[in-house]
Design brief:
The protein is α/β, with parallel strands linked by helices and 409 residues long. The chain has 4 domains: 1-96, no CATH class; 97-145; 152-229 and 357-408, Ribonuclease H-like superfamily/Ribonuclease H (Nucleotidyltransferase, domain 5, 2-Layer Sandwich); 231-351, no CATH class. It is built from 16 helices and 11 strands. Helix 1 packs across helix 3 and helix 3 (126-144) packs across helix 15 (381-393). The protein binds zinc ion.
Length: 409
């Protein structure tokens, strides 16, 4: 007789592994390690009232399904005379699959595997896949309840649906997670949400695009926060207005995709032959060259970050005359740019002190679009919000990984 195994079944710490029957389906036989104590009075010696066989889908090994078989019991406590069922760690009562098995289905479905496929490989019904998926989403959203408002908040809009229009994203820029999504982007649609937001006075920095609506909302609801212009949007605006100007000079050249890509690029990213090409083009439009150089100088200024307070002052003195020059321009697009930058000069000055930008938000927006596409669109905003929070806002796994890395380092 082989010595009795003391090993537990992986993922089910209350079961001792007895033997495995490999076959078309893998059956793992287990036995309860020890009787539990009475949950009510903690009496250690409980009696078995009845026994029954239980089967749990536990994991997939390659294309085989591993099922755990064991005898479960109903117990009676002789001290307080109560009856209770066995509670097995790694499972929930009355389920025929272990929690790790359910998580596996969730992860695979989230990764894009269809219900139909999973129903076949994991031997469950379509409806079960859907129910488990929704269950995990709900759990994650529940776990998020009561979380604190982030210290560094990014605010940006994104398109939701044709019928319902835009939504506003609040992003935790430190942890790269969505804090929340709210339908609408106007003062009216956001104020209800913001009024109810607890501990919003915690927020120190808010990064946003150059939208005056958002600015007035933020000033009203986050009196302690510092508003910082979003570098990503500022540079994009400069480029947009420059390209509009260019279209005035040469509408045909503006339509050339090759030239457009050269014009948009930062100077140091141009290869020598690309620089030659651009210079040749500018020979024909010398005025455009002046504006182009101006634009390069302006974007280089906007790319500064982590500056000391004193340096910010110096750079402001570089920026202000440029803004005046733009405002005095006879070209409409340049004039508009000058006026916008003027209205945001304080927020731009603060931008130089920080490095966080809403490019993080932009990345999350791409992810959210994928979520929406995978679900073939959402009609109900709340369902969409749940999905976004669970998939872009919940940081259980990432935090665990990060803390592990810190421990190892
Ligand atoms: Zn008891």
């Amino acid at each position: 007789m082989p010595p009795e195994s003391t090993q537990e079944i992986l993922g089910l710490p209350d079961l001792k592994h007895e033997f495995t029957d490999p076959g078309n389906r893998i059956f793992i036989y287990g036995r309860l390690k020890q009787r539990p104590a009475c949950p009510r009075c903690k009496h250690p010696k409980v009696h078995i009232k009845s026994s029954f066989k239980r089967e749990l889908r536990h994991f997939k090994l390659g294309n085989q399904l591993a099922i755990v078989r064991f005898t479960s019991h109903k117990f009676r406590c002789p001290a307080c005379n109560c009856y209770f069922n066995l509670k097995l760690r790694g499972t929930l009562p009355k389920r025929r699959s272990s929690e790790s098995f359910r998580l596996d289905v969730f992860e695979r479905h989230h990764g894009g595997m269809t219900q139909k496929h999973l129903a076949r490989t994991h031997e469950i019904s379509h409806a079960t896949v859907e129910r488990w998926y929704q269950g995990f989403i709900k759990n994650r959203v529940d776990e998020l309840k009561g979380r604190k408002v982030p210290l560094v908040l990014g605010i940006d809009e994104h398109f939701f649906t044709k019928k319902k229009g835009y939504a506003t994203t609040f992003v935790d820029l430190k942890n790269h997670k969505v804090f929340d999504v709210v339908l609408g982007r106007s003062e009216q649609s956001l104020s209800d949400y913001l009024r109810k937001l607890p501990d919003k006075n915690r927020v120190r920095v808010i990064v946003m695009d150059l939208s005056s609506t958002y600015r007035s909302i933020v000033k009203k609801h986050f009196p302690n926060a510092m508003i910082v212009a979003d570098r990503f949007h500022v540079i994009r605006l400069i480029n947009q207005q420059f390209i509009k100007t260019w279209a005035q000079f040469d509408p045909v050249g503006r339509k050339s995709r090759g030239l457009l890509s050269l014009m948009r690029r930062h100077e140091e990213n141009l290869k020598p032959e690309q620089k030659v090409k651009l210079d040749q083009y500018f020979l024909v439009y010398p005025h455009l060259k002046t504006i182009y150089d101006f634009k390069q100088k302006l974007t280089n200024l906007m790319r500064l970050k982590h500056l000391a307070k004193d340096t910010v002052w110096l750079k402001i003195h570089d920026l202000l005359p440029m803004i005046e020059e733009l405002k005095a321009s006879v070209i409409d697009a340049m004039k508009t740019l000058g006026e916008t930058l003027h209205a945001w000069k304080n927020e731009i000055g603060r931008m130089w002190r920080f490095s966080k930008t809403n490019s993080i938000t932009e990345g999350l927006h791409n992810k959210m679009e994928m979520i929406s596409r995978r679900a073939f669109g959402f009609r109900n905003f709340n369902n969409y919000r749940m999905r976004v929070l669970a998939l872009c806002g919940w940081n259980g796994i990432i935090n665990r990984k990060r803390s592990l890395k810190l421990k190892l380092a």
